[in-house]
């Protein structure tokens, strides 16, 4: 398999396909119903404790509201690496949604700690995915704004489990 650092945006594929071990979750595909994705989110997020690491207030709040509606307990949201690491250390987590760029920092120390603890996570970014280091191959990359059903499937679904 090729390393992530060689993957460029034209290589990104729909969620169910893999390109160099990176799972890409993009916009809804034609024929895919948003109601189905919403039901999937409710099924997969119900009862889960999910950390949100996002420095854009409105995106963080929207994600929080959607997760709570799906039955998840939201940890955070937090906007910085230090605050996120504190929550990873002190909270029981089932998963995390990570913005890549946080207040001038990159989220990778948080991702490293989540991986060390075997907590599933997805990256959510509107930036070029080539900034994500090769050590994170196999983790889902969600285009912002991402649909909650696709994030749920990436974190907890059968296909995502094959790669985490």
TrEMBL record:
Family annotation (PROSITE patterns): RESPONSE_REGULATORY
Modified residues (4-aspartylphosphate): 99
Key words, A-Z: Phosphoprotein
Domain annotation Response regulatory: ranges: 49-159
GO biological-process terms attached to the record: phosphorelay signal transduction system
InterPro entries reported in the protein's UniProt record: CheY-like_superfamily, Sig_transdc_resp-reg_receiver
Protein name per Swiss-Prot or TrEMBL: Response regulator
């Amino acid at each position: 398999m090729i390393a992530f650092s060689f993957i460029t945006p034209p290589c990104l594929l729909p969620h169910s396909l893999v390109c160099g071990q990176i799972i890409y979750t993009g916009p809804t595909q034609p024929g895919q119903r948003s109601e189905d994705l919403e039901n999937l989110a409710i099924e997969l997020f119900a009862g889960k404790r999910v950390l949100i690491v996002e420095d854009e207030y409105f995106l963080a709040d929207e994600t929080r509201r959607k997760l709570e509606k799906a039955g998840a307990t939201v940890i955070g949201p937090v906007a910085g690496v230090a605050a996120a690491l504190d929550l990873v250390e002190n909270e029981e987590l089932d998963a995390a949604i990570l913005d890549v760029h946080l207040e001038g920092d990159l989220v990778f120390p948080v991702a490293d700690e989540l991986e060390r603890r075997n907590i599933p996570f997805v990256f959510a970014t509107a930036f070029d995915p080539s900034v994500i280091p090769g050590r994170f191959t196999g983790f889902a990359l969600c285009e912002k704004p991402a649909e909650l059903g696709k994030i749920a499937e990436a974190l907890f679904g059968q296909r995502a489990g094959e790669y985490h």
